[in-house]
Design a protein that fits this description.
Elements lengths: L2 H17 L2 H17 L1 H7 L6 H12 L5 H13 L5 H16 L1 E8 L5 H15 L2 E8 L6 E6 L2 E6 H13 L4
Helix pairs in contact: 1-2, 1-6, 2-6, 4-5
């Protein structure tokens, strides 16, 4: 995340928090960022400097007016005017980071070799919340390369209990033995 994204996204969060709109703005900001990410040609069109800013902003008005809160629409238009619309996903990430901090939420990702069942996911979610004392936003991913076990990434801290990691550790131990 760039400094621009951190500054803009953080400022939007501060404004939304003052108004008690942080949850709504977060959802709508993520939705707009996803829409622009899914259509890179539209994002490119909105970033062409030879098209007047007024016309580019009119395109954003046409696409989003009445569908998102005015704060979100104006925020996206400001990014467009400043030529930093490509920073929108970073701004949304910065907004989410401040939102999570303010609401005691930790983001966690569990990586397993096979999909976890709903029961396993629920038990892991409960355990993580009990251990951390915070609300956990748990995502799961499947990566056959882990072979078995689970790797957790909680706010940048990795806890690796995978078979792949254990085998690598065993390999390092064996390589360190002198005969």
């Amino acid at each position: 995340m760039t400094e621009i994204a951190r500054m803009y996204g953080g400022s939007l969060y501060d404004l939304a928090a003052e108004e008690g709109l942080e949850t709504r703005i977060l959802e709508e900001l993520d939705a707009v960022a996803d829409i622009l990410k899914q259509d890179p040609e539209y994002l490119h069109l909105l970033s062409i400097p030879s098209i007047p800013k007024k016309e580019r902003c009119a395109l954003l008005d046409e696409a989003f007016r009445g569908k998102v809160h005015l704060y979100v629409l104006n925020f996206v238009k400001i990014l467009c005017e400043k030529g930093t619309l490509r920073e929108l996903s970073g701004c949304a990430r910065a907004f989410r980071v401040k939102y999570n901090q303010a609401h005691g939420i930790l983001e966690a990702t569990a990586v397993t070799a096979v999909p976890m069942s709903a029961d396993q996911t629920a038990r892991l979610h409960e355990k993580l919340e009990a251990v951390t004392g915070k609300t956990i936003d748990l995502r799961t991913k499947v990566d056959a390369a882990v072979l078995g076990g689970i790797r957790l990434d909680i706010e940048g801290t990795e806890l690796d209990g995978t078979v792949k990691n254990r085998l690598a550790s065993l390999r390092r131990s064996i390589a360190g033995i002198t005969v």
